[in-house]
Amino acid sequence: MHDTSRIEPDHRLLFEIAASQRGYFTAGQARDCGFGWDLLAYHAKTGRFQRIQRGLYRLRDYPSSMHEEVVAAWLAVGKDIAVVSHESALELLELSDVIPSAIHLTVPRDKRYLRQPPNTVIHTTTNAMSRRDTVVREGIRLTNPERSIVDAAETGTGGEQIVMAVTQALDQGMTSKELILDAVRERDDRVRELIGNALDVATS
């Protein structure tokens, strides 16, 4: 537990952290900046901080921005545990025209009992996400293009959107045919066929 009793609250540092996260911050991040529970509660009561849910806050006056609800869910689950994935990752990577009906996050299988934020789908993986499996976009950690495409295909994203995502990712040099084939290697026959067809269309 952090001892904040002797630490002067650093408003500037907290603002910098929140600004890198669309205006959101966790209670743990606030404590690291010298804001103890009493001070957090005080600022929430006065309205300077908005309490979003347990352990998650937002600067009241920070401007709204695109995808901030994704950041909020990611922080609520744990930025060191979860990665934005599936259709949510495709959206942040600007691949395809998919509009996710929920926020998709992936966590290690042993973290499957984490509290699930509203309108969020938590997927699990038995294999720990390595650095090569993820990319960072505007401070958000998400699955890389090839894994995002394959994961989305596996969970039912339409074939037309998968073709578009593959085509755009290849055209923009975000991935390669070899990396996509490697990502789909251990998936089932349906997913391999869907990705194979998408690659045929994209490279024809």
Short description:
The protein is of the alpha+beta class and 204 residues long. The protein has helices spanning 11-19, 27-32, 37-46, 68-77, 86-93, 145-154, 159-171, 177-184, 189-203; strands at residues 24-26, 49-53, 56-59, 83-84, 103-108, 120-125, 134-137, 140-143.
Structure class = alpha+beta
Largest sheet: 3 strands, antiparallel
Any idea what the radius of gyration is?
19 Å
**Terminal residue distance:** 58 Å
**Count of domain modules:** 2
Task: List the secondary-structure elements in sequence, H or E.
Answer: HEHHEEHEHEEEEHHHH
Q: Tell how many strands the DSSP assignment holds.
A: 8
Task: Please tell me the overall pLDDT.
Answer: 93
Inertia-based shape: elongated
User: Which regions are unreliable across 5 or more consecutive residues at pLDDT < 50?
Assistant: none
Tally of DSSP helical segments: 9
Helix amount, in percent?
Answer: 40-55%
Beta-strand residue percentage:
15-25%
